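Please produce the structure of this protein holding zinc ion.
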Amino acid sequence: MSQTDYLQRFLFEHHAIRGELVFLRDVFQTITTQRDYPPEVKTLLGHAIAATALLSATIKYNGSLILQAQTTGPVNLLVTQCDQNLNMRALAKWQDDAHFAHRILGDGQMVITISPDNTTERYQGVINLSSDRLNENLESYFERSEQLPTRLWLAANQNQAVGLLIQKMPSLNQGEQAAGTEWEYWEHLHILANTITETELLSLDAMNILHRLFHEEDIRLYEEEPVTFKCKCDKHKMIQALKTMSEAEIRDILRTHHVVEITCDFCNNHYAFNTQDVDEIFSGGI
Ligand SMILES: [Zn+2]
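Below is the modeled complex.
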């Protein structure tokens, strides 16, 4: 398939170990042209969107997986979102006087939220950022909280983001000996996968990467799945945002500008509300 943005799932036959590769070119470029991102922030965003797509595809659900990091570092906010159909959006905010030489994220927390559609129930996991490398933070979280050994390799340049994941799933009804063999096989795959370089991730396609790493393994391949950029903002959500502001403040803006404008941080879409709209919103009409 010649699409530029896709996710490739695979499974190691006779083992409860799965893998995924994701390639993001158009999605990455659409996200990174929404604002004037410094190259270091672009790379971080690339790692984050690749990781989010990979993690989203490991769970069966209808809804969104959101990764949000809030830190004291140069990049103080990072938000990435992916739904079950691999529609993605993301943004980052950084300090004006940011220096990226030492750390890019700094101290802080990252929250993984799984937000199913049609319900207000959410699952949230909190990760204390102990490393500047996103993959290491996520790996230790999966090890500790989910007891799902997971390894991620993330790469990004100024044009694209690529990620590789392998995950050891729980295997049922397994004797001690079989479980031991399974751990050995997991270690074997980890060693193989760990030989991948960033240059290879950024230059090879899924078939070539799988051949390069696992040509002696028995792999089942699934259909490639397209990944797309899609922002879920709409007028209704912006009205809800407007309602959280004080009416006096909004009336003030209207007096000066005759219109209140809200811009979506993810896609730069503008939503404009005139006096009549604001009257309706605050009279409960909308
Ligand atoms: Zn939007």
